[in-house]
């Protein structure tokens, strides 16, 4: 298993899926989002990944962070499943994504298993 972490997040790859989980509660700022993206690029080794991104420990995500992530955060990804805390957050995020038209398949889930099923479907489709 390949692993990489920094002071606030841990990444690991199992069976072709990139996973991440915050080690503690995080209030995003521009420095943190840059470090997160930099660490994800490093573990990806500049190769596209299917990413299961658990953000249950993430709190604030200011506009400057969203803007930076929108520009730099989708590099080296085939698809991203975001795992969040609430059905309301999931609904709002998925509605926003439909309006925004993400560069990659991107969807929010409240259940890890459903997030993984969705990523595995996309991975299987892309590999066939």
Automatic annotation (TrEMBL):
Classification via InterPro entries: DUF7793
Top-level taxon of the source organism: Bacteria
Domain DUF7793 residue range list: 11-123
Annotated protein name in UniProt: DUF7793 domain-containing protein
